[in-house]
Design brief:
It is a single chain. By secondary structure, the chain is an alpha/beta fold. The chain is 31% helix and 29% strand. Strand 9 and strand 10 form a beta hairpin. Helix 1 crosses helix 9. The chain is elongated and about 75 Å long. Bound molecules: flavin-adenine dinucleotide (FAD). The site of flavin-adenine dinucleotide (FAD) has 41 residues, from helix 1, helix 2, strand 8, strand 13 and helix 9. Belongs to the DAMOX/DASOX family. It is found in: Peroxisome matrix. Its EC number is 1.4.3.1.
Length: 341
């Protein structure tokens, strides 16, 4: 059988990392990334890129933990290598602070991040409005550098990149044997998934290089995440809102909330406002599907719906998607040997 032709639809963090896992696992495949938008115009470019997971109701906790752990281990190695600056990945320490004692003493990911511990009384003096908190070190991906780094690795492995809007997956059937759907919120229209909905997020990217520690208010709505080139101030979570226009009242509200946590941000400069739609679902759709029309078949693997946690779990879900691509390759070999009988 000829080398299988695989198309990954989507060039956000999920599409590019899935393409990389597929080409690393099955180097004989001929692989292409097909996307309407590439960096810097994807939702992934808006994200803060922090590795702090959000719990989703539809996936068992041990699976969410596994995805997070695989992602953390992968980015730990990159951050600890000469690649770190180009990949835009780095360690970042800070605090998650609460006004009242949280329900969960230790979240499921507390033994994956580094040095998770309750904050000391001395640390809490920095946050007079808060009564307790947790200190830890985690990892952060800066975008677009991380997406550009993934693209560079893919191109070095011979992967082709095509800018194209796909109206339905079947249109790829004449060119590819296997299609991996990593379209993020675009999957709502692409495959008509009514369980997928947007959770709009507005953030500010500001120049405040003196801010070195992250600060996250316990509800996760207000956060200050320092990156290599800018600090991300957030945020909002607006369920079912499809608007990509920045709201000036929200900008002021985010800025005021962040200054209440870190007063030195009053001096922040070069404020840029960004909006993105988190592709949200009760659980990530990681699934194989066979599409058929008039006796012809197209093997599909879905990997979308990462909501607020695309960066926190992208490598774990990419590995699982690559495993499903492996099952598709085995099925193709099976079809081809049966056809010869
Ligand atoms: P996207 O980045 O949206 O990529 C989808 C790709 O599919 C794009 O290339 C698009 O053009 C393409 N596409 C869609 N439809 C089609 C089509 N029909 N034909 C061709 N191409 C198509 N997560 C974290 O883990 N940590 C954070 O700190 C964090 N902060 C965030 C802050 C904000 C404000 C927002 C909005 C999100 C945040 N997230 C965070 C969530 C994270 O951004 C998402 O989970 C992640 O970006 C989803 O990646 P994706 O690749 O699935 O989607």
């Amino acid at each position: 059988m000829a080398a299988p032709k695989v198309a990954v639809v989507g060039a956000g963090v999920v599409g590019l990392s899935t393409a990389l896992c597929v080409v690393e696992t099955f180097p004989a495949c001929s692989l292409a990334v097909v996307a309407e938008q590439f960096t810097p115009d994807t939702t992934s470019d808006v994200a803060a890129g922090m590795l702090i997971p959000h719990t989703t109701p539809g996936t068992p906790i041990h699976v969410q933990k596994q995805w997070f752990k695989e992602t953390f281990t992968y980015l730990f190695a990159i951050s600890n290598s000469v690649e770190a600056a180009e990949a835009g990945t780095h360690f970042v320490s800070g605090w998650q602070v609460f006004k009242s004692t949280p329900k969960e003493e230790s979240p499921f990911w507390s033994d994956v991040v580094l040095g998770f511990r309750p904050m000391s009384e001395a640390e809490l003096q920095k946050f007079p409005q808060h009564s307790c908190g947790q200190a830890f070190t985690t990892l952060k991906c800066d975008c677009p550098p991380y997406l550009l780094w993934l693209e560079k690795r893919l191109k070095a492995k011979g992967v082709q990149m095509y800018t194209r809007k796909v109206a339905n997956l079947w249109e790829l059937h004449s060119e590819y044997n296997i299609v991996v759907n990593c379209a993020g919120i675009g999957a709502h229209q692409l495959v008509g998934d009514q369980k997928l909905f947007p959770v709009r997020g507005q953030v500010l990217k500001v120049h405040a290089p003196w801010v070195k520690n992250f600060i996250r208010d316990g509800d996760g709505l207000t956060y200050i995440y320092p990156g290599i080139h800018s600090v991300t101030l957030g945020g909002t979570r607006e369920k079912e809102s499809w608007s990509l226009s920045p709201n000036p009242n929200t900008t002021k509200d985010i800025f005021d909330r962040c200054c209440a946590l870190e007063p030195s941000l009053q001096r922040a400069q070069d404020i840029k406002v960004k909006v993105g739609l988190r592709p949200s679902r009760a659980c990530v759709r990681l699934q194989r599907e066979i599409l058929s029309q008039g006796g012809a078949k197209l093997l599909v693997v879905h990997n979308y719906g990462h909501g607020s946690g695309g960066f926190s779990m992208h490598r774990g879900t990419a590995k699982e998607a690559a495993h499903l691509v492996g099952e598709c390759i085995a099925a193709l070999q099976d079809f081809s040997s049966r056809a010869k009988l």
